[in-house]
């Protein structure tokens, strides 16, 4: 192939007219178009929801999990879990760059892809022989294709690879939080982050602070998480509350914010049922940013209507220009973020 | 009962701690709290998705549909279709107003409820005997309860009831479109409405015009709908395209807008799979407003990320202050809207 569509539609085998993410099957031919990039794959990071589903479906049998992942990639030309609809990301080395690629990558660079595996053409050539099937981290050999409009970030030299990956995995969240907080021009802005001790949550705290929020409130699920954040300087106040229990949540958030809801509420809790609590915890005229993939569109839409809540609700877009650099910057500037991340993903690979 | 929660949590029978919409079952006791209002019900309007499901499940057998609607209301204390998760709205006459109700209603007023039936305590006392089960419009006798934070609109005297209801049913859309278009302060704003010949779509066209959009583009599915809009003055241009086919849709929208995507794209097409096309049809820095209940949260979130699309995506909140009056105002000012609505809902009850 010599010319490509920037969104990769020339790689769609079926159904006709779909974009790569919506496709049943992609063409992972290693020959690249003029604007494509080929990556030599080193590792897949399956997204947590996808791995959990595979693990449960096969009762934790690593051999069976590995066989199914291979079968999915073989059948679909991408690692797109048909049950969860989710994928993950990958790391590898740039192998070939088309003469008209706009991504600015160079052969030999080590990169992480910031677009989902659900739309990335992928071929595996080692049968995943180095993977025991018992981890989301999948050592792998093969190739993947990036389109003109894909996104990849060079891995930084100064961070352990697994920490850099964990930061890049959620880098859309802090960038969007910064934008939403910074553009509010009327008065002091209060920010409440639900799920504040997690990866996207703690980076969102740091972004809110960086955007000069007047008060940053961390909402966590238990005293253990509260203790992790205490003394980190990431939040002005910490509240323990169940994000799926709307009334107690809203009461605690409002009490912590001097009787008003938050101007910006950020939902990073990856379980269903947080929509109503987030809406009730937000002040009139405020904004809720939903980053959790467990968010239900109709529950949020009908919930706000049913509560006569004049709040703006954003679908957390994982892409904001400069998001990778910004997240890495926050991470380097805040040693407490490193502690929180190590607590989640370990000290080494 | 004498005091109520403004969001109605005192009416939740199960599960404990849920809000009325998330509840399995509500208490429809006719005794009202100090801040509640009791409505004498005259008609239910089942939402289209709910009625379609019931009709399909019972093979169009009106008796069976009626029996199931009665059973749902009896079991749940509300008309909340457990399969679709949707409800509808109702009209009736204000029967009793608690001394501390903030809704401003008076006994004897004829009103439409603007909060979903999925959270409205409801009791039916005529066995729906006047309904043949073959229409979304359900003549009914019984009572319903409004909470302190519910919303109801007095029915206007100057419009046929069924037209007023059809307008109020979608009144959140034009109000939010106006707000989003009006607050864009940098340069001329272009607006594309997908599903522009429908109820929420045509009102969104009128709202975009009212908010001084530089160009209003109507996207419709076929030539029949294009003919309905032609000469109405509601749109500057009309394009026929399938909103579920991302690339042709984006190409046509971009061509009609002089080579750029829309600054604001409004999704009023009530079928799944419009997310990617809407994102691709929107200019960098633009906004997509999703009003369709068929919108998938993860498809929108991962889609924008996968397309490296820097667009803001809003969950269409059905509540914006003043939404009912604004929609009725647009409807009265635009005789072509009346023609479009009559085409959808008929000339009389």
List the helices and strands and how they pair.
Two copies of one chain form a homodimer.
Chain A: E1 12-14, E2 25-26, E3 37-46, H1 48-57, H2 62-76, E4 88-97, E5 110-113, E6 122-124, E7 137-146, E8 152-154, H3 161-169, H4 172-183, E9 190-194, H5 199-210, E10 215-220, H6 223-229, E11 237-240, H7 246-256, E12 262-267, H8 275-280, E13 282-290, H9 297-306, E14 312-315, H10 323-333, H11 335-345
Parallel strand pairs in A: 9-10, 9-12, 10-11, 12-13, 13-14
Antiparallel strand pairs in A: 1-2, 3-4, 3-7, 4-5, 5-8, 6-7
Descriptive keywords:
11 helices, NAD(P)-bd_dom_sf (chains A, B), Quinone Oxidoreductase, Chain A, domain 1, 2 domains, 349 residues, homodimer, six-stranded antiparallel sheet, alpha/beta, L-erythro-3,5-diaminohexanoate dehydrogenase (chains A, B), KDD_N (chains A, B), globular
Q: Biggest interface: chains and residue counts? A: A-B, 56 and 56 residues
Strand order of the largest sheet of chain A: 6-7-3-4-5-8
Oligomer type: homodimer
Strand content of chain A: 15-25%
Category by helix and strand content of chain A: alpha/beta
- Computed CA radius of gyration of chain A, to the nearest angstrom: 21 Å
Catalogue the unreliable spans of chain A. Answer: none
Provide the helix percentage of chain A: 25-40%
The CATH homologous superfamily of the largest domain in chain A is named: Medium-chain alcohol dehydrogenases, catalytic domain
CATH architecture of the largest domain in chain A: Alpha-Beta Complex
Give the number of domains of chain A.
2
Task: Report the top-level CATH class of the largest domain in chain A.
Answer: Alpha Beta
Largest sheet of chain A: 6 strands, antiparallel
Number of strands of chain A: 14
Distance between the ends of chain A: 37 Å
Quote the average pLDDT of chain A: 94
SSE string of chain A: EEEHHEEEEEHHEHEHEHEHEHEHH
What global shape of chain A is seen? globular
Instruction: Count every helix of chain A, treating DSSP H or I runs of 4 or more residues as helices.
Output: 11
Which fold name corresponds to the CATH topology of the largest domain in chain A? Quinone Oxidoreductase, Chain A, domain 1
